[in-house]
Design a protein that fits this description.
- It is an enzyme of class 3 (hydrolase).
- The chain folds into two domains: 5-178, Aminopeptidase, CATH 3.40.630.30; 197-326, Nucleoside Triphosphate Pyrophosphohydrolase.
- The chain is 25% helix and 32% strand.
- The chain has helices at residues 15-22, 25-28, 40-55, 103-118, 133-141, 170-178, 241-253, 319-326, and strands at residues 5-8, 59-66, 71-82, 85-94, 123-129, 145-154, 159-169, 197-206, 213-217, 228-229, 232-234, 263-271, 275-284, 299-302.
- It is elongated and about 70 Å long.
- The chain has a seven-stranded mixed β-sheet, sandwiched between helices.
- With 327 residues, the chain is α+β, with helices and mostly antiparallel strands.
- A hairpin with a 3-residue loop joins strand 12 and strand 13.
- Bound molecules: 8-OXO-guanosine-5'-triphosphate.
- 8-OXO-guanosine-5'-triphosphate is lined by residues 201, 203, 222-224, 229-230, 232-234, 277, 313, 315-316.
Amino acid sequence: MAGTFCLRGLRPDDAGAIHAQVNDWNVIRMLSRLPFPYPRDLAERWIASTVQQAEARTAYHFAIENQAGAVIGCIGLTLSQTDGQYRGSLGYWIGREYWRQGIATLASDRLCSWAFANLPVDTIEASVAQDNVASVAVLNKLGFRQTGAATQVFTARGGNVSVLLFSASRESFDAAHESKPPADADASAEQTEEPRRLVLVVAAVLIDTNNRILLARRPEGKTLAGLWEFPGGKMEPGEAPETSLIRELREELGIDASRACLAPFTFVSHSYEKFDLLMPIYLCRQWQGHPEGREGQKLAWVEACDLDQYPMPPADIPVIPFLRDLL
Ligand SMILES: Nc1nc2c([nH]c(=O)n2[C@@H]2O[C@H](COP(=O)(O)OP(=O)(O)OP(=O)(O)O)[C@@H](O)[C@H]2O)c(=O)[nH]1
């Protein structure tokens, strides 16, 4: 069992624990850039560099700490941007004593969820030595898919090693989480084909006196976390769309809108992997109160011409030109 652990920033006094665990042939042979033997001062310099990278927002490295306060591994994500596409590159190691407890899966899951929700990242990649069967299994479980193969210099092994290249999009990561069977699922239950669901969601384009639109960023833990959407939510059975929207705006943003201020604008219809979304969208220029993210979501007031700088759920993209025309 993996037990409880946390991810935290690296500290200079972690150098001893890191050195002791990485300076192990079985760990280091799976890491491409590290020499063997691994000198202690390299751990110190690496820790210092992780602090600088986090300040520059180019990479985020964490110590994996167990319940007893011991560092049992490290995990990190390095960011890059090409052609407007943001990518993260995932890397980790776990001390040999802590292998086969599911820690790499849990830590990678935690880091990827956080990254998709909070960093400008649309895709996370990883390259794994072909003989690193455990890491291949970790990535497959988390919704990564193999995209190719290459060779890479592994310093400790003294030359080129065949590696497998993996990549996860926000959608494949979400889908892997949604398809997990419940813990008490009856394995012997007859397999039945699930019918497609129609999900009714109602949303508002809130427009302020400067003609800016309010977007809310889907928080970590939700599907499509990190994407910017119009405030709103699922309609409950028997609820009128306007009633749902008034309720959602109060719950999510702490504002009061009246029925008379909700003007039907358009709707979106989109087929997601697991369901069909039908979403009426209302315009609203008047409400009581000051919108704040009551569910931990970040908010942004955005000019219509800047909407494409905020990654949105695919269902929302066709609405952008209508808003540009309107505002
Ligand atoms: N509120 C809102 N939801 C949207 C927008 N675009 C879009 O695809 N959706 C989808 O509509 C659903 C909204 O459900 P919700 O807001 O009640 O979200 P939720 O907490 O139930 O999310 P979850 O069921 O994915 O965890 C989500 O699947 C979301 O991805 C949008 O602009 N606003």
